[in-house]
């Protein structure tokens, strides 16, 4: 429960707002229409700054809020769920119109989202999903179809290795218990599980961090170099893993097939050089879509439970890689 000082502050703020509203006169309009006329205040709880993807996402949401005339309170949780929970409580104390949450993991949100609901503040999930007892604790989800991202990675590998007798795969996964980590793993396995030629010899978490991706790959290479494929859940970890692969004299993209997710400019550049074979797109540029949904919520309108961003995969089989526009992250 929010502590007493913040509740007193909230009540004072509320009283001032009430007096202000009364003084300015509301012409008897219902409160929701006032929200649609005055500047919308959004509390944005971002999980961290762990990758180029995340930094690009933050920049895009901030720029989109500016374009939309929405006032944004942005708090970076630095990869700690407890900081996101504190951020949500401060947004409640400020009586924001809408909360947007990019949840680092799926569990542990029921209590604080109940507080937001009791305060009458709708919550939009952006980027990742959550698991809660009561689905009504959030208004909707905007982000990627991570299962499909994993399937795209698997389909590329089937095409790339259709004549191979045996394919030994190393998986470096993302933050444990996060939606992208869980679903990119499931989608990838959905495509390959029916074929006995594919063996995932090890799967370790690199927490979406470049440094940990490098460390994971170094440790794996100490055990074996009999690896055909690296499936890495994000470009940051892939760039780290490629350093480790090259440090032992192996050629990424040739000796080891490299499949990565996100679509950062750095990964696309390595795809063009032949040091990565497949880049599954996961766009962070969802700010404008988020602001459209925020405005609906602030006006008391319903939004879809799930809104997916449009994505594709870029592979060595594409003949238009040089024509690709700059990625913007
Ligand atoms: C995916 C996002 C993931 C990215 C990583 O939507 O949550 O988190 O794939 C980022 O780069 O760290």
Summary, kept brief:
This protein is an alpha/beta fold and 329 residues long. It has 11 helices and 12 strands. The structure holds beta-D-galactofuranose.
Structural class: alpha/beta
List cofactors, ions and other ligands. beta-D-galactofuranose
Please provide the count of β strands.
12
What is the gyration radius calculated from CA atoms?
A: 22 Å
Largest sheet: 6 strands, parallel
Our count of domains comes out at 2
Question: How does CATH name the architecture of the largest domain?
Answer: 3-Layer(aba) Sandwich
By CATH, the superfamily of the largest domain comes out as Response regulator
Low-confidence stretches: 1-5, 14-30
Quickly name the level 1 CATH class of the largest domain: Alpha Beta
* Average pLDDT level: 92
Secondary structure elements and pairings:
Elements: H1 4-24, H2 31-37, E1 41-46, H3 52-68, E2 71-76, H4 81-93, E3 98-101, H5 110-118, E4 123-127, E5 140-143, H6 146-160, E6 167-173, H7 179-192, E7 198-205, H8 210-223, E8 229-232, H9 235-247, E9 257-262, H10 265-273, E10 278-281, H11 287-298, E11 306-308, E12 313-315
Parallel strand pairs: 1-2, 1-3, 3-4, 4-5, 5-11, 6-7, 6-8, 8-9, 9-10
Antiparallel strand pairs: 10-12
3D structure, described in words:
This protein has 329 residues and is an alpha/beta fold. It folds into two domains: 39-143 and 284-298, Rossmann fold, CATH 3.40.50; 146-282 and 314-323, Response regulator (Rossmann fold, 3-Layer(aba) Sandwich). Helices cover 44% and strands 18% of the residues. The protein has eleven helices and twelve strands. The protein has helices at residues 4-24, 31-37, 52-68, 81-93, 110-118, 146-160, 179-192, 210-223, 235-247, 265-273, 287-298, and strands spanning 41-46, 71-76, 98-101, 123-127, 140-143, 167-173, 198-205, 229-232, 257-262, 278-281, 306-308, 313-315. Strands 2-1-3-4-5-11 form a six-stranded parallel beta sheet, with helices on both faces. It has a six-stranded mixed beta sheet with strand order 7-6-8-9-10-12, with helices on both faces. Helix 9 (235-247) links the parallel strand 8 (229-232) and strand 9 (257-262). Helix 6 (146-160) runs parallel beside helix 7 (179-192). The two termini are 38 Å apart. The model is unreliable at 1-5 and 14-30 (pLDDT under 50). The structure holds beta-D-galactofuranose (GZL). Beta-D-galactofuranose binds next to helix 3 and strand 9. The site of beta-D-galactofuranose (GZL) has 15 residues, from helix 3 and strand 9.
């Amino acid at each position: 429960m929010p502590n007493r000082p913040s509740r007193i502050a909230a009540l004072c703020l509320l009283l001032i707002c009430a007096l202000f509203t009364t003084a300015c006169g509301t012409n008897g309009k219902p409160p929701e229409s006032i929200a649609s006329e005055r500047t919308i205040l959004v509390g944005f709880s971002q999980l961290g700054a762990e990758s180029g993807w995340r930094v690009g996402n933050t920049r895009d949401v901030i720029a989109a809020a500016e374009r939309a005339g929405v006032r944004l309170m942005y708090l970076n949780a630095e990869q700690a769920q407890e900081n996101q929970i504190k951020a949500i409580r401060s947004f409640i104390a400020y009586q924001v119109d809408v909360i947007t949450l990019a949840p680092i993991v799926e569990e542990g949100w029921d209590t604080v989202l109940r507080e937001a609901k009791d305060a009458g503040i709708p919550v939009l999930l952006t980027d990742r999903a959550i698991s809660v007892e009561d689905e009504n604790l959030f208004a909707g989800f905007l982000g990627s179809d991570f299962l499909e991202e994993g399937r795209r990675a698997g389909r590329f590998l089937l095409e790339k290795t259709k004549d191979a007798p045996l394919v030994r795969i190393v998986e470096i996964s993302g933050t444990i218990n996060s939606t992208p980590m869980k679903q990119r793993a499931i989608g990838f396995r959905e495509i390959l599980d029916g074929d006995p030629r594919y063996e995932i010899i090890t799967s370790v978490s690199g927490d979406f961090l470049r440094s940990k991706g490098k460390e994971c790959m170094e440790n794996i290479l100490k055990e074996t170099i009999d690896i055909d494929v690296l499936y890495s859940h994000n470009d940051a970890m892939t760039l780290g893993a490629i350093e480790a692969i090259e440090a032992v004299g192996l050629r990424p993209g040739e000796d080891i097939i490299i499949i990565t997710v996100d679509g950062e400019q750095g990964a696309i550049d390595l795809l063009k050089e032949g040091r990565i074979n497949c880049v599954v797109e996961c766009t962070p540029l969802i700010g404008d879509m988020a602001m459209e949904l925020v405005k609906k919520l602030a006006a008391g309108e319903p939004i879809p439970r799930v809104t997916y961003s449009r994505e594709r995969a870029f592979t060595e089989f594409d003949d238009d890689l040089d024509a690709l526009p700059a990625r913007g992250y």
